[in-house]
Design goal:
The chain has one domain. A hairpin with a 3-residue loop joins strand 4 and strand 5. The protein contains two helices and twelve strands. The strands form four sheets. The chain has a five-stranded antiparallel sheet with strand order 1-10-7-2-3, with no helix packed on it. It has a three-stranded antiparallel sheet with strand order 4-5-12, with no helix packed on it. Strands 6-11 form a two-stranded antiparallel sheet. It is mostly beta strands and 146 residues long.
């Protein structure tokens, strides 16, 4: 199953101005239901939090903290450990990457949304551990033109 990542329209502005610092500021990843409709104008956690899966059965409200990998900061990427939800029993379709700080008027800015199955289809997890595969080249990568 392939996934598709969408970065929010304000993401690069937050990075370029230093208001969000990759590899320094805390990030979280939360699971959202299929009721969510992607909107590039969504800017903060409150814009999408109503679509988060319910707490319980292996899931904590607000999602999981993304943990920086050992040697996770390179010249070209910021690499995080794959988050694992233990004994998760949930149905979901999306994952949301949120910076867990306040930036100007944004409370927990939304950085990006991941459609976890590009079909699109729901992910149904019935009590087993669920691992979300973070790209091995890093969640955030520097573009190097040829």
């Amino acid at each position: 199953m392939a996934s598709v990542s969408y970065w929010q329209t304000h993401y690069w502005r937050l990075i370029a101005t230093g208001k969000v610092r990759l590899g320094v500021d805390p990030f979280k990843i939360a699971l959202l239901t299929s009721a969510y409709a992607r909107n590039a104008a969504h800017a903060q956690w409150s814009d999408i939090s109503g679509f988060e899966v319910a707490a319980g059965n292996g899931y904590t409200a607000g999602g999981q903290s993304l943990v920086l990998a050992v040697n996770g900061i390179t010249d070209d990427a910021i690499i995080y450990i794959d988050p694992v939800w233990t004994a998760l029993t949930k149905t979901f379709r999306w994952a949301a990457v949120v910076c867990d700080i306040n930036v100007d008027a944004l409370v927990k800015p939304l950085i990006g949304i991941v459609l976890l199955d590009s079909t699109p289809a729901d992910i149904v997890n019935n009590g087993s551990n669920y691992t979300l595969d973070v790209p091995s080249l890093g969640l955030f990568q520097r573009y190097q033109p040829a």
